[in-house]
Every structure is written in structure tokens, then in C-alpha cells.
UniProtKB/TrEMBL annotation:
It comes from Rhizobium laguerreae. PANTHER family: PROTEIN TWIN LOV 1. The keyword Cell inner membrane does not apply. Residues 1-11 have a biased composition (Basic and acidic residues). This is Blue-light-activated histidine kinase.
Length: 345
């Protein structure tokens, strides 16, 4: 710095200082600049490309560069492939307009390691108002960003767990309310088996990391225990989102139990055929449950509790539609699950 420059540039007065400190304020300022743990750098605004003329120890430690590697260079050497051009444009605009700016920018150390830099730039003008220097301070935000990302991820996870828990509890509530409570022993057994069906579906979801589940895999899981050799499955590879799996698992469980106790699987010659296909325009899916050899129920037969549960799951939980018809061959049930509940593979 020349004597001519010193006459034009006067530092800001301290916000609080004693007489003794005021007398030494220039030396104290130099000591504070070098010893502070905050990385700082000064560039010369009167020279082309704003070269670095001052940098403190903290700046060298943060960036990993040596003094000889940075003096006389523009600070853009801290930029890299993933540095946001928008952040760079903001900095350039602030420099051109000679105003202060604070911006978070992804920078690179000498080793190539990335770090998030909260950069604050401040212009330094001479007594005549002309720009002389730019002062820059940096705060390494990398760890803060990592913790912030972890907290956001944890929050999303908790929200998802809360949503899933509410969904499962709503299904369990339906099981408890709709199960036949006339006989305590049968009531307990019915609830136990229905909750076990949910648990099997939950295990399937956990094994697939709560992503889309194969419709065929779920059907076979719930039906095979009741019809290992007399059930026939056919349909394309369709995937369901996680929220559909547990309500549909309970529907399939109820239909299989009914077929085993009162339907086609209760007779020696009865058989069960389950097919599925995409819904209209490939959205959602339809399941056709066909029991051949099922005894025809009395015309005035009362709706069973399993039928009530199936209806509640399909219409309320899945927002779908169920149609049941009887023919000379047996029972035919068509289940339609809308597009909002499923996806194709």
C-alpha cells in the first residue's frame, strides 16, 4: 500500500474502545485479522481481475492452499464443476455494483474436497468514494448442511412412519369393530388371524424397503396357505405402492378364509382361480376372484363379517369398487383398485 493510498483510506472506527486501544487500533486490527478463526481475504479492486493481496491463516487452513499459491489470483480458483453459476452471477453482480453480499456457494479446497462456503463480501471505498478493495469473510457451512440434511431426512422419516402407523391402526380399528364379537374365543381368533395377515404383508414391505410390491407376490402370500394346490394364478407383472399393500392383504386374506370355510375350497372338487390385469388405460388394476364348485348360499343369507370387512377395505381404504355375482359354476368377485392406488411395472 503506497503513502498516497494511506491518505485516501481510513479504517472504520471501533464500536467500543478505550483511549489506549484507540492509539493502537491499527496494530490491533492487523493482529485480529491474522489471529481470528474466521477465514478472511482482501482483493485489490483497482487491479484487473481483483487479485488477492491479503489472506489470513484461517483462510489458508480452510482452503488448503499456501500463500504463494493464492496471492495475485482471483478467488474463482475456489470454484469447481458443481459450483452454482447462479451463486457466481450473484457475486459478480454485487462486485459490479460495489455493494455488500452474503451468499452460500459450493467451493473446492486445494485437495479437491468440496465445502459449503457462506461468503460475505464488502466493498472498501476511499475517502473520495472510489472503490479500493473488497473484503471477504468465509464460514464453512459443510457440517451445518450435513446436520440440516440429516434433520430433514429424519423429519421426513418420522412423517412417513406417522402416516404408515395411522394407516395400519385404521385397518386394525376396522378389524376390531367389524369382527364378530358374539363368541369371545372366536372373536379373539379372528382378530389374531387378521392381524397376522397384516403382519405378513408388513414383512413383505419391509423386505422390499417399503417400495412397490408385486401384486402376484402379495396374492400368493395371502392365498397359498389355504389353497396350495387348488389355486391358479395368472396376470401380468404389476406393481403396487406401499399404502395399497396392507388393506389389499386383508381383503385377500378374508376371501381366502371364506373360500376355505364356506366356498369352493371347502369342497373336494372346488378350485380357485385368481387373475389380474391393468385398469382402464393402464391405470390401477382389476382382480378377478373366481371360485368354481362353491356351494350357492341361501337367498336370504346374512352378510358375514368377512364380507363386511372386505367391502370396507375395498371401498373405504382403497377407494375402489367390488362386485360379487353368483352363477351355476360358483362365485365371481371383481375388485377394481383405482389409478391413485397403484402403478404398472
Amino acid at each position: 500500500m503506497t503513502a498516497h493510498t494511506k491518505e485516501k483510506l481510513h479504517g472504520d472506527l471501533p464500536s467500543a474502545s478505550s483511549k489506549a486501544a484507540s492509539a493502537d487500533r491499527k496494530e490491533l486490527a492487523a493482529i485480529a485479522f491474522e489471529r481470528t478463526r474466521m477465514p478472511m481475504v482482501v482483493t485489490d479492486a483497482r487491479k484487473p481481475d481483483l487479485p488477492i493481496v491479503l489472506a489470513n491463516k484461517a483462510f489458508l487452513e480452510l482452503t488448503g492452499y499456501e500463500a504463494r499459491e493464492i496471492l495475485g489470483r482471483n478467488c474463482r480458483f475456489l470454484q469447481g464443476p458443481a459450483t452454482s453459476p447462479i451463486a457466481v452471477a450473484e457475486i459478480r453482480a454485487a462486485i459490479a455494483e460495489e455493494r455488500e453480499i452474503t451468499v452460500e456457494i459450493l467451493n473446492y479446497k486445494s485437495s479437491g474436497e468440496q465445502f459449503w462456503n457462506r461468503l460475505h463480501l464488502s466493498p472498501i471505498h476511499g475517502d473520495d468514494g472510489r472503490i479500493l478493495y473488497f473484503f471477504g469473510s468465509q464460514i464453512d457451512m459443510t457440517e451445518y448442511r450435513r446436520i440440516e440434511a440429516l434433520e430433514a431426512s429424519e423429519h421426513r422419516l418420522l412423517m412417513e412412519v406417522d402416516h404408515r402407523s395411522k394407516n395400519v391402526l385404521a385397518i386394525v380399528d376396522s378389524i376390531v369393530r367389524l369382527s364378530n364379537a358374539e363368541d369371545p374365543a372366536l372373536y379373539a381368533a379372528a382378530i389374531q388371524h387378521r392381524v397376522q395377515a397384516l403382519a405378513r404383508a408388513h414383512s413383505l414391505l419391509a423386505a422390499r424397503r417399503w417400495t412397490s410390491i408385486s401384486l402376484e407376490e402379495l396374492i400368493r402370500q395371502q392365498v397359498a396357505p389355504f389353497a396350495a394346490t387348488r389355486a391358479f394364478f395368472s396376470g401380468p407383472d404389476l406393481k403396487m405402492p406401499a399404502p395399497v399393500v396392507q388393506p389389499l392383504a386383508l381383503v385377500l386374506h378374508e376371501l381366502a378364509v371364506n373360500a376355505a370355510h364356506h366356498g369352493a375350497l371347502a369342497t373336494a372338487q372346488g378350485r380357485l382361480s385368481i387373475s389380474w390385469k391393468p385398469g382402464p388405460s393402464g391405470a390401477g388394476f382389476n382382480i378377478r376372484w373366481q371360485e368354481v364348485g362353491a356351494p350357492t348360499p341361501p337367498k336370504l343369507a346374512k352378510r358375514g363379517f368377512g364380507t363386511v370387512i372386505v367391502g370396507a377395505m375395498v371401498e373405504k381404504q382403497l377407494q375402489g369398487r367390488l362386485e360379487k355375482t353368483w352363477s351355476e359354476e360358483g362365485l365371481l368377485i371383481d375388485i377394481e383398485v383405482p389409478a391413485a392406488s397403484s402403478t404398472s411395472a
